[in-house]
From TrEMBL, chain A:
InterPro entries: AAA+_ATPase (IPR003593), ATPase_dyneun-rel_AAA (IPR011704), CbbQ/NirQ/NorQ/GpvN (IPR050764), P-loop_NTPase (IPR027417). It comes from Sedimentitalea xiamensis. This is MoxR family ATPase. It holds the Pfam family AAA_5. Residues 32-198 form the AAA+ ATPase domain. Transmembrane segments: none annotated. It comes from the Bacteria.
UniProtKB/TrEMBL annotation, chain B:
Residues 92-140 are annotated as: Disordered. InterPro entries: UCP010256, Uncharacterised_CoxE, vWFA_dom_sf. It comes from the Bacteria. PANTHER family: BLL5662 PROTEIN (PTHR39338:SF6), BLL5662 PROTEIN-RELATED (PTHR39338). This is VWA domain-containing protein. Residues 128-138 have a biased composition (Gly residues). The lineage of its organism: Bacteria, Pseudomonadati, Pseudomonadota, Alphaproteobacteria, Rhodobacterales.
Amino acid sequence: MDTWTDLRSRLADTGYIASDDLSMALHIAVSLGRPLLLEGAAGVGKTDIARSLAAVKGCELIRLQCYEGLDASQAIYEWNYQRQLLAIRAAAEDGETGRAVEARIFSEDYLLERPLLRAIRQPEPPVLLIDEIDRADEEFEAYLLEVLSDFQITVPELGTIAAASRPMVILTANGTRDLSDALRRRCIYAHVDYPDRRTELAILAARAPQTETKLAAQIVAFVQKLREEDLEKVPGIAETLDFAAALAGLGIKDLTDDPAALQAALATLLKTQSDRAAVPVEVAARIAGRAA
Amino acid sequence: MSRVTRFAAADPGPAARVAGFIGHLRDNGFRLGVGETGTALAALCRVDPTDPAEARLALKAVCTGCAEDAARFDTLFDAYWMADGRVRQKIVPRDRAAPPAHTRNSRADDGLQSAGRGRAHAPDDAGGDGQGDSGGPGRLVASRLHNLMRKDLRELVSPEDIRAAEQVARQLGRALRDRRSHRRKAARKGSAVDFRRTLRASLATGGEPLRLARRRRPDRPVKIVALCDVSGSMTLYARPFLAFLAGLMRADADSDAYLFHTRLVRIAEALRDPDPLRALNRITLLADGFGGGSRIGGNLAAFAQGHARRFVNGRSVVVILSDGYDSDPPMVLDAALARLRKRGCRIVWLNPLKGWSGYEPVARGMAAALPHLDHFAAAATLNDLAALEQALARL
């Protein structure tokens, strides 16, 4: 895989249709060994790109889901205290010396690997997905910067563990809070937007191949029109695919056929009460009519 | 693609051109260091750099760092690399010894703009980046035209005001911020014993828990987002309110501030300028139309749909400083506040007119807003603001 177009076509083979911006950013990030920071609205396929990259590279995907209060023991490593305690008790009964016990209970056997440590200890470079980094606290972000620049982790009892291979790091953010400039600067950046009509058709064809061409065109046009409406939660690609699946389940061949069934299927696209209220049967039928 | 810029014969080579491009981006408010130039060159080695489309995508991935940058990048790229075959004479600036940050600030300081290279191509919709907004010829032209509409904020607010306001803002911030989390975190002192860490520590003392580790509920800071109305009807009160905003920004690094009249402007970046007077100067540049009409509903709707999505969450208190005289229909304000509320924030409206005896919130906008407010109070002077501490602490 030498050029970014190769990467894009191989991603397409795994069912991920990437935009030019995204495939170039991914190509550069992978070839320069830099982390890739992806921003964009929910449901545009930020997390999925990591899965597809892992499939393309034929390597493992290690995922670290960030949340507020995420700390080192959940992200990096933790000692298995219960096992250590048991080992100490057992050793006391056997009359083992303190030094030997200590060496044993602070060995690899008693170390619980969490995603970051696991990622840098893989013999083959894995894809490390750090999902929704903006949900983690700023302190964790600062620590992550250190790991991402040195690719080594220090466990006081064991010493410094250097990376066996450099993982391909993908960070995603939703804009919960502003990320630090330091993190942005260290990363290759791509902003993932809602796909245009052509791309979304290609995605639908790749992910839901059973959908007929005419209906697929209608679905995409309908969703694209819906995104222009003033909604609280704009439907993403995942919602489009759900919508297609729902229509298939309801046996709908044409969006304009049955307004009631269409309204029922809208449950897959509109996820808040006020959005449902904003698109009543008539509006949905009008949009469907224009999409057809 | 024959529109590619031709470079002068004396030009030192591709690396220097890329360095020149990074400098061009930097002049336009991108935050790029020397490291990025290296990364950009390395990235160009991984693609076909003679294909403008590939080079554009590659440089975009390296040089942009946020959505606003990404949106502006294409224009800036065109301005530098695709200048219709024009010859670019000097690509590496030699005459600037000062570091970029200083250069930008001093420009903002005297308000004059020595037009940098390529600046004429810069779009002037620099988003929330105050530094981008304060430069650029588009703004200056506009400022000359609207001169009568503009007031220099320095005439309104003195550094002493800001210092006093900073004190008040600190107190208010503290009153609002003192919130405890429900989860417990490890801490040296705390109300509950952390069994896990205690056991872990007891290994060092032969299984005897000599030192008790503790957990406590950490403070969860509340973020203050202030929106200040600076329309004509509010001119009288602009002085304490702006001083308050300036003080708030300086006292609390997490807070956020906006001005609105006919447009909404984010001023948090500008107000954080280390020099208080220069901060006000930068806002003056940002806020043309100051003292003009008021579109409260429209601006709050824009805020609720735009910045609020990024900066307002369940831990925010939105403080609106306005008299409620709105030229938009009241429904707009009603919908905007309802939407804002859904983000889980608390909304405080401080109205200078409420202090008047016999005041009734009859302004239609104000009446529409009332049901959505957590707290509605009078505030016309700094002392009034200081007196709010008690009420805000109860929110």
